[in-house]
Design goal:
The protein is α+β, with helices and mostly antiparallel strands. The protein has a single domain (about 1-125), classed as Aminopeptidase (3-Layer(aba) Sandwich), CATH 3.40.630. Helices cover about 30% and strands about 25% of the residues. The chain has helices spanning about 10-20, 30-35, 80-95, 110-120; strands at about 1-5, 40-50, 50-60, 65-75, 100-105, 140-145, 150-155. Helix 1 (about 10-20) packs across helix 2. The radius of gyration is 17 Å and the shape is globular. About 20% of the residues are buried.
Length: about 160
């Protein structure tokens, strides 16, 4: 197995991996993956076995915390240490960036994923809730509505 960075031309193959390995989201597009590949403090790392992409992890640093997204391994390649190797590679990137705390976003309804993160030394932080909002493509934020919410308009 070899772990290496994503090349932007591999976006379609990465999408296929995510389709068979995990839950898809609205940001799973070729354009979004290509943009990810160009970010200075983001690394999408791939696990290759026999020139086939069998795993992925996204490590980002926002200047405050390291974040892990999209740890995925093809079902037929699981339980071989690939996920652990991807996490270790992400942690190496964090060390280069000076990251001291890492957050891994994990879907609660995937008990095998929750168990994995516990096994590699990450603790569930029950003090934190994740709030999300999908913005329409091309949306711009312009001011606040009552209650402190921002208005989002297509444009």
């Amino acid at each position: 197995m070899k772990i290496r960075p994503l090349d932007a031309h591999e976006a379609e193959a990465l999408l296929e991996l995510w389709t068979v390995s995990t839950t898809a989201s609205e940001t799973d597009t070729i354009a979004d993956i290509a943009r990810l590949a160009r970010q200075p403090h983001a690394r999408c790392l791939l696990a290759d076995v026999d020139s086939q992409i069998v795993g992925s992890i996204i490590a980002t640093f926002d200047g405050w915390r390291g974040n892990i997204y999209r740890l995925a391994v093809r079902p037929e390649h699981r339980r071989r240490g690939i996920a652990r190797a991807l996490v270790a590679a992400a942690e190496e990137a964090f060390a280069e960036w000076g990251v001291r705390r890492v957050t891994a976003l994990v879907e609660r309804d995937h008990p095998w994923a929750v168990g994995f993160w516990n096994a590699v030394g990450y603790d569930l932080d029950v003090r934190i809730a994740r709030f999300v909002r999908n913005l329409p493509r091309g949306a711009r934020v312009d001011g606040r509505t009552s209650g402190g919410r921002r208005r989002v308009r297509d444009g």
